[in-house]
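Exercise 7. Given the encoded structure of a 166-residue chain, write a plausible sequence.
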């Protein structure tokens, strides 16, 4: 992903701050963040994090049922266990400070509104992976910006379908 004006507007302050929906127990760290199992697994604790593939984060998860700890995509953890993940990042001093990532990914498009400057266009409020859905941490993007960096999330928003590509 290339840094652009939209990404530069991502709020980088610390996150303010139990989940169940995971593709867990893969023997290796071969991730497919678009796959989410319908089976639910209770989480005991988020133990740590590490970079994966240069610009993604995976979270070390301890499972409440005693299953072996496993590394899960941050996106999946955020979608299923948002408060637990946000609290985890808060304890790390904030996601941006902990990871040092300069580029971020859209988790979901929350809503849209008519542009004040161009009545024929819409703006889309985007939530970023690892950050809360509050106004302080979201960004309004134009159609071109959001479809350039988060086409799948935009399609899920406009169609009302979840996990289009899963």
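Solution.
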């Amino acid at each position: 992903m290339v840094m652009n004006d939209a990404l530069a507007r991502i709020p980088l302050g610390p996150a303010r701050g139990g989940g169940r929906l995971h593709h867990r127990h893969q023997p290796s760290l071969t991730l497919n963040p678009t796959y989410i199992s319908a089976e639910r697994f209770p989480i005991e604790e988020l133990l740590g994090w590490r970079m994966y593939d240069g610009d993604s984060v995976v979270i070390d998860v301890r499972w409440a049922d005693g299953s072996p700890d496993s590394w899960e995509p941050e996106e999946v953890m955020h979608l299923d266990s948002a408060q637990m993940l946000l609290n985890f990042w808060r304890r790390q001093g904030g996601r941006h400070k902990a990871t040092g990532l300069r580029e971020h990914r859209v988790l979901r498009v929350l809503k849209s509104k008519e542009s004040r400057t161009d009545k024929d266009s819409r703006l889309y409020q985007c939530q970023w992976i690892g950050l809360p859905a509050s106004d302080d941490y979201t960004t309004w993007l134009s159609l071109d910006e959001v479809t350039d960096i988060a086409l799948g999330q935009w399609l899920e928003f406009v169609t009302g379908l979840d996990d289009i590509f899963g």
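Remark. The beta strands are 43-52, 56-63, 70-73, 106-114, 122-128, 139-142. Students should compare their own answers with the one above.
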